[in-house]
Amino acid sequence: DDALEEIKTALEIKISPDVYRILGEIYFNKGVIDLAIRNFRESITLDPSLAEGHFLLGFALGEKGRIDESLEQVKKAIALNPALAQFEPNLPIDIKEHKGHWEFLKEQLGTPKISKNEYQVHFNLGMTYRNKGLFSEAKREFEECLKFQPDNPDLQLALGEVDLFLGKFDSALEFIQKAYEFDFDSPICVNTWGAACCLKGDLAEAAKLFDKALALQNNHTAALNNLAVVESNLNNSAKALDYYKKAIDCGCAEARYNLGMHYLRLGEHENALKSFSG
């Protein structure tokens, strides 16, 4: 019930297909099928490419006995995302309660195979979720990838990044360090490792890692900006300013904002205004 109220509040703030989908899931699992259908429809009206919205709408329609409409929506969903043909590792609804309808749908659809390259399907879907800010869903897809390529450094790094967003810093470090074992000359990997240390409060170790990332690629904008932030927090103003300016020269817009905040902390309001105004 608390989650339901939070989602309703989110809808009042910003109309979002993902929020409507999540609200539909809550109603679906509470057995309020008509409201679930309404919210799933709102979701795919705002974003017709949202495969899970179509899929869940199909299940909700099936609960109401509207079989033809159910099949139509599930077909659309699987056409948009073949990974949904697997169902069980991909959907947030109660599988045991609704598996009978899924078995019926599989008979009707012939259940298309996910893909010759199952790893890439799950990985691409995970990246889509990550870029939309749906980090739990992204992690679920990346974990599916572990079945196919458990030692892939890009996958390990992706899992580490998602865990950082989820606030799971210890497990994030484990994934990132494993990625580093397989790809030790990647500035992206080293920079992400530094970000994890920074979030854990180990600024000294973070600074070393950002330096290492820059040794691997001297114009790595994220590492320059991150190192500037660390130096600022360590009260090394001259070093922070130097790194901020280098990051800005490399085209890092975030560094310009951070530089402005740095000037504000120093009480240099005119310089802060110049930085914010570009």
Automatic annotation (TrEMBL):
PROSITE patterns reported in the protein's UniProt record: TPR, TPR_REGION
Pfam family for this entry, one: TPR_8
SMART domains xref list: TPR
Entry keyword set: Repeat, TPR repeat
Transmembrane segments: none
PANTHER family: LIPOPOLYSACCHARIDE ASSEMBLY PROTEIN B (PTHR45586:SF1), TPR REPEAT-CONTAINING PROTEIN PA4667 (PTHR45586)
Record's protein name: Uncharacterized protein
Organism field: marine sediment metagenome
